[in-house]
Amino acid sequence: MKITVIGTGYVGLVTGACLAEVGNDVLCLDLDKAKIDKLHEGVLPIYEPGLDEVVARNVAAGRLHFTTDIDRSVAHGTVQFIAVGTPPDEDGSADLQYVVAAARNIGQRMTDYKVVVDKSTVPVGTAEKVKAAIADELAKRGLSLDFSVVSNPEFLKEGAAVEDFMRPDRIVIGAEDDQAIHTMRALYHPFQRNHDRTLVMDIRSAELTKYAANAMLATRISFMNELANLAEVLGADIELVRRGIGSDPRIGYSFLYSGCGYGGSCFPKDVKALQKTGEENGVPLRVLAAVEEANDAQKQRLIDKVVSRFGNDLSGRRFALWGLAFKPGTDDMREAPSLTLIDGLLARGATVCGFDPVANHEAHRVLGERIDYAENPLDALDGADALLIVTEWKQFRAPDFDRIKQSLKTPLIIDGRNLYEPAAMRALGLEYDAIGRK
Ligand SMILES: NC(=O)c1ccc[n+]([C@@H]2O[C@H](COP(=O)([O-])OP(=O)(O)OC[C@H]3O[C@@H](n4cnc5c(N)ncnc54)[C@H](O)[C@@H]3O)[C@@H](O)[C@H]2O)c1
């Protein structure tokens, strides 16, 4: 199939590369010339495990192309995926300007039938707006061409995006007409050889499904974080509580970890946008208001721990910070809890040396020279008063604890991701303060 993917970011590039991998002829469009230039040079604009190989293989095979030329991109694909950003507007609602601009671009240029697929996370009713924008542009041209609009939300996780796309646990398709449903089923058939995981539904339900999924996941995190805070005061251990409740199949173990708050490009904005949708429709989503409030507070937990240990004036103090990306497996710094912590430390006069296995470069783009950057985790410790852990990269799980103890001025680890056993840390002579641990 000939496919165009509009927006070559975390979702668009993975979608385009994986669709090419199964044999489709894919053209990825982005308005960011620097991004497309990099891709033409064989350099990926983002870090995503395994993606570089898939991109290189399919570029070499002539199935994956990149462009900034909108005429070419509209002409190319019978299927046009919209995978542009939907950042929060000032009032928390999803800003649809990029989605609507992409739709208008299609309406201004199309000359034959297109299936236009909303892959961006968009509020209920967006497919109708996309349809109206295309119809409006066609009317201006005096044309009445057939087209379908489909909602096909993306559930991939950054850090495992290629794997998630190649082996999806579900493919949600919101569509109204048989031709579009047939096209989408054919497109996704190669990704579900084992058994069909397609859920075909009406467009509004598909749009709501994506927000419901992210809101539920964010709710589990905030719930566990608040319980961890309570456990800490009560002298209980949240790790034991987690196992105690995760064993109930109605609850399950996944996504039950407490920590220093969720970040990233999706949960914060999607929780806000869904609340806004509720508000606009006279249905207040009180649970989500609490989820957001709890998360904002949780992002302050590490700074609170630092202050209670060293006092509010941190001038002359230096902290090593392990993990800058919002989660392991990505270089994405959007809404990362590390940023809240860094702001809090710098505002109190401290200096910070950060280390991240892949996000140092992106962190430097965001933070510039506000902090120092180390080339490896142990170098970050030199001259530091304590080690603060913000992202649970695998390489932090079993570090050289003796070296940590020797390097730090105070043998203290404040762990926002509960990576270690408190008793083992005590036995090593390290002070260890985690989230909700005894
Ligand atoms: N990142 C994730 O893990 C994830 C997962 C599922 C869903 N989503 C959703 O997917 C969408 C995209 O997210 P992302 O993280 O890939 O964003 P991103 O910011 O990484 O990429 C978006 C890209 O779209 C480009 N763009 C904007 N307007 C354009 C236009 N008119 N034509 C062509 N290109 C245009 C931008 O230059 C940018 O490169 C969002 O709605 C997001 O909520 C993201």
From TrEMBL:
It holds the Pfam family UDPG_MGDP_dh_C. Residues 320-422 form the UDP-glucose/GDP-mannose dehydrogenase C-terminal domain. The keyword NAD applies. Keywords: NAD, Oxidoreductase. Its EC number is 1.1.1.22. Gene3D superfamilies: Cytochrome c1, transmembrane anchor, C-terminal, NAD(P)-binding Rossmann-like Domain. It catalyses: UDP-alpha-D-glucose + 2 NAD(+) + H2O = UDP-alpha-D-glucuronate + 2 NADH + 3 H(+). Pathway: Nucleotide-sugar biosynthesis; UDP-alpha-D-glucuronate biosynthesis; UDP-alpha-D-glucuronate from UDP-alpha-D-glucose: step 1/1. InterPro entries: 6-PGluconate_DH-like_C_sf, NAD(P)-bd_dom_sf, UDP-Glc/GDP-Man, UDP-Glc/GDP-Man_DH_C, UDP-Glc/GDP-Man_DH_C_sf, UDP-Glc/GDP-Man_DH_dimer, UDP-Glc/GDP-Man_DH_N, UDPglc_DH_bac. Belongs to the UDP-glucose/GDP-mannose dehydrogenase family. This is UDP-glucose 6-dehydrogenase. It comes from Jeongeupia chitinilytica. The gene is rkpK.
